[in-house]
Design goal:
It contains 21 helices and seven strands. It is an alpha+beta fold. The N terminus is likely disordered.
Length: 591
């Protein structure tokens, strides 16, 4: 198996680089922008209401957030100076930041929130630059557990909103509105036709609001007074640069949220690449880095504006897999419409009039699904004892601290408040447990050399000693040696001939392979061995070249012969290309 192509979209109407007709771009772009604007406004309304901030700040925050979401959606589509994933990626407000944002606004207002979000952006830029270092950190267990912990930090606010109604409201108002909204959301998500599922937030919130209107707990006066077009007054005093105790108490939570956003952006970029092409292709992690860089740039702008960071919405993947449209050009239209909708204050006022029980019921369902999705990611390769232990313990540590069930008196001190958040405490737990497994797992064996076929003897001796140490059989040892030899030769030949002429960049670097260093790391696993080749190569992707072999290899090409032999001896080959390094991972079975 060369690469995972299960998510490949073979029924695309418009692939990433194709140009749909103008009318189709207009209709799809406008509809998607309207749908994306609803969760943006809802999330900002939830945060501002929970933190007790002013209506003026809410108007400014929604305006700035939609403007930034539109701009970053465009950048994701067109790629500007290396920023952007080059896919149809719809950006919006991060639901993962709701919990920590409420704490920041309540403690220090928009100025403190902005400073913490800027710090998160700097963290994201760093992660984007060295994304290859996270390949052993962003594991399914870590990313899935963090997703589940996001729901733990947000759910208490959703429950609290269920009973928040005006004084004098009928006793049946809150439970009835909550029940209707819950039934509407769940019913639409479970039984509505696919074409209607994207409208679930709009229809469910509208249904709950109609029932709330019947009970007289909806105030439509602000909607009537709001203009159709306008720009709200700036409602943030700038950044809080005092870096007081509150900043340091809240910073760990924001850094964990930044890590969650990174996981979400990386996962979305990888999946969008897989569903945006008519043919199976290897993931280009340089574009994944670009997508994360664009997300970080949007986070930086959000911090300067004093609002929440963004992350990718599922709208892009839904368009590609459900409608068959993955054209980047439509991403530009969606972004442009999001920018235009930011100048419509009446939309902001309309969503702001939605009563808290409706929003609370919507939060409970959506973040309940987020929890389930996180668990699916954790156990996507089966329920194993190690994964279950790490995920289960980390989740309940986070939940216990979030709900004040674990030594609450010890988390009341200023220093301990840094951990008195479910996402922070649970996230730290899962990272420490993951680090423990890495340190106590299979011992890595390393060797470094120049990327040159003259070093085949040194590599072969290294693997012979490795196989002898773990008592590999003769046939498995020969398979291991042969796979490693073909991997080194394939990397070297691609550097020598510029990737076979497929990659123009390679022409400028032909003949430079002997100047590059190669590091090989071998790990003995339960059923196989993993060989990791790390080199600063700059040519095409080996996985893609292996896929092209299916359409007819060149029998006279030494490069194609090496690829065929490598595919024969290895059980899997994975080639990850980053801006500063290439990592080729080859697995060889023991049996």
């Amino acid at each position: 198996m060369v690469t995972d192509t299960k998510e490949w979209a073979g029924e695309l109407r418009f692939a990433a680089d194709e140009r749909p007709p103008g009318p189709a771009c207009f209709v799809i772009g406008l509809q998607t922008a309207i749908l994306a604007s609803v969760p943006i406004v809802v999330v900002m309304t939830i945060v501002v209401r929970a933190a007790g901030q002013s209506d003026q700040y809410l108007s400014w925050a929604i305006f700035a957030t939609m403007l930034i979401a539109g701009l970053t959606t465009i950048v994701q589509a067109v790629r500007v100076r290396g920023l952007g994933a080059g896919t149809l990626t719809v950006m919006g407000t991060s639901g993962a930041a709701i919990g920590v944002a409420v704490l920041a606004l309540a403690a220090g207002g928009p100025a403190l929130l902005g400073t913490l979000v800027v710090a998160s952006a700097l963290c994201q830029f760093t992660l984007a630059a060295r994304l290859e270092l996270l390949r052993h950190v962003i594991t399914p267990v870590v990313s899935g557990t963090l997703m589940a912990l996001v729901s733990v930090s947000v759910m208490p606010m959703g429950f609290a909103m269920l009973t928040r109604v005006p004084e004098g409201a009928p006793a049946a108002a809150a439970p009835t509105v909550t029940a209707v909204t819950l039934l509407a959301v769940v019913g639409l998500m479970l039984r509505s036709p696919r074409i209607m599922r994207a409208w679930t937030p709009v229809l469910a919130i509208a249904g709950g609001s109609l029932v709330a209107l019947f009970f007289g707990i909806v105030d439509l006066g602000p909607v009537a007074r709001a203009p159709w077009l306008g720009v709200p007054a700036v409602a943030t005093p700038g950044l809080d640069l005092e870096f007081g105790p509150t900043f340091w108490v809240l910073l760990p939570g924001f850094l964990f949220v930044s890590f969650v956003i990174t996981v979400r952006q990386v996962s979305d970029s990888v999946r969008m690449q897989r569903v945006s092409s008519r043919e199976p292709r290897a993931v280009d992690f340089r574009r994944v880095q670009g997508g994360l860089g664009a997300c970080a740039a949007g986070t930086l702008l959000a911090g300067v504006a004093g609002t929440l960071p963004g992350w990718p919405y599922a709208a892009g993947i839904a368009l590609a897999t459900g409608v068959g449209v993955a054209a980047r050009r439509i991403g530009v239209w969606i972004g442009a419409f999001l920018v235009a909708l930011a100048f419509v204050p009446k939309l902001t006022a309309l969503v702001f009039s939605v009563p808290p029980p409706v929003l609370g019921a919507y939060i409970i369902v959506i973040f309940g699904v987020t929890f389930a999705e996180g668990m699916r990611v954790v156990f996507q390769q089966g329920v194993e004892r190690l994964n279950a232990t790490v995920a289960g313990l980390s989740f309940w540590v986070g939940a216990g601290i979030q709900f004040g069930a674990i030594f609450p008196e010890h988390f009341a001190t200023p220093a301990a408040r840094m951990l008195a958040n479910g996402l922070t405490a649970g996230g730290l737990t899962v990272l420490l447990l993951n680090l423990f497994l890495a340190l106590t797992g299979p011992r890595p064996h390393r060797v470094e050399m120049a990327l040159d076929p003259d070093n085949l003897g040194k590599l072969d001796q290294f693997l012979v000693e490795f196989a002898a140490r773990y008592r590999w059989g003769a046939r498995a040892r020969e398979r291991l040696r042969a796979a490693a030899e073909e991997a080194l030769l394939s990397l070297w030949r691609r550097e020598e001939d510029g990737g076979g002429g497929h990659t123009p960049e390679g022409e400028a670097h032909a003949g430079e392979a002997e100047g590059r260093r190669l590091r090989v790391v071998a790990r003995n696993l339960r059923r196989d061995a993993a060989l990791e080749f790390t080199a600063a190569t700059r040519t095409g992707n080996l996985e893609n070249e292996m896929i092209h072999l299916e359409s007819g290899p060149d029998p006279t090409s030494e490069r194609d012969l090496s690829l065929r032999l490598l595919r024969h001896h290895a059980s899997s080959v994975k080639h990850q290309q980053y801006h500063n390094v290439d990592i080729l991972t080859v697995r060889v079975a023991k049996a």
